[in-house]
Amino acid sequence: MKTTFTARHFDASPDLKQYSLDAVEKLEQFIDKIIVCDVILQPSQNDENPYIAELNVKVPQKLINVSEEAPSYEQAINGAVDTAVRQIRKYKAKHFDRQ
Known about the structure:
Helix content: 25-40%
Radius of gyration: 14 Å
Structural class: alpha+beta
Shape: globular
């Protein structure tokens, strides 16, 4: 899986970047056919949840796009990964579990 990291409108710390990349590596446990995973972090206008994490996961014949807002980047990343896992399981059941 090829992974890209983008921080929009702010400079991400190396720790935040590593945390993000480690979090999306967990997606490979659920499906090994991931081609590319883009991680995009950006600030939000929302005062309650000022941070946004977006994941674009490219699998064969589909692009899974997830966006989560949270009080911290770490929480947003974890929420986005959890949502992506649910969508990947749904995709996998639909495309690969047919017998």
